[in-house]
Specification:
The chain is mainly α. Helices cover about 75% and strands about 0% of the residues. The longest helix is centred in the N-terminal third of the chain and has 28 residues, at about 1-30.
Length: about 210
Amino acid sequence: HDARAFVAQDRREKSFRISARTRELVGVADAGGLDFHQDLAGPGAIKVHHFNFERRAGLATESARRRALWLELSRLRVEQQQDPELGFLALARAYRESPRDLSLRAQLVELAGQAKSEEALAALLEEILPQLTPEGVAQASLTLGGLYEGPLEDPEQAAVSYRRALDHGASTPRPGSGQAPALAGLDRVLEGLGRWEELLPVLEASL
């Protein structure tokens, strides 16, 4: 009887300590601000910590606040959990808040490669195209062309993306518009498809 009572008491104490630690993490995360770098012990505590970032980001009403929280959660998932796939998902949420941020897009492309999430990245870029300027569409389409031509192995979609990059970059022939890489990409893809003759009108239009 005494042994059973001791075990029951020990379980209650452990449960109380776990509950208290969880409440502490929740309370600190709810305190406001972005300085959430407590000394977290163990993977369970880290998951609770990350869950609170996700919860706060979902509740945030300001776009800049959501972006900051998703960015920090992405960093934590990569550095603390060593999970680039989860990090990519959080970074994608941050990017949706500012799809014209080229620096953030570059980070997203890099992390997608680490996470083997190129398909998800392509879907996201296709989704945000209507929110971009013509030059932004050209740049995103160039990235899409590279994804479809490379890891996604879809030359038909690569050709579509490279053509779109050329169409939207034609009116802005400035350095960085992506015209030359798009033209070279379209050349490679059409040659691989045995449809190099389709490149002739594109070349004529670019002269």
